[in-house]
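REVIEWER CHECKLIST
Item 1: Sequence provided? yes
Item 2: Single chain? yes
Item 3: Sequence as submitted:
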Amino acid sequence: SEAYSPKFNAGKLKCPVLFIYGEDDRLIPENDRNELFQICSSEKKDLFLINGAPHTKCAEIGGVMYREKISVFFKEIFPKSDIKDIPSENDLDIQKTKKKNKKRKR
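Item 4: Structure as written out by the authors:
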């Protein structure tokens, strides 16, 4: 339905928007991506392209760069908040290892 289409709603957005797209996205054509960005009415908007990423793999392929971009975007929007830095790859690996060790002890 058109009521749920991003093209129908992007022009209504007033809040900050970070568009994240994989450059190898076969679901959303490049022209549609660019059109959505252009019609978005938010005063604070940014387009972040992730090289080599298909539609659903931006976080995995973007890795640290992906997390840092999101962190910086939110820090710009909420500069006086208590937003913590996004964990590094090493921090995430340590958390996964701790969870695995807890499961083994049970």
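Item 5: Key structural point noted by reviewer: The two ends are 49 Å apart (CA to CA).
Item 6: Recommendation: ____
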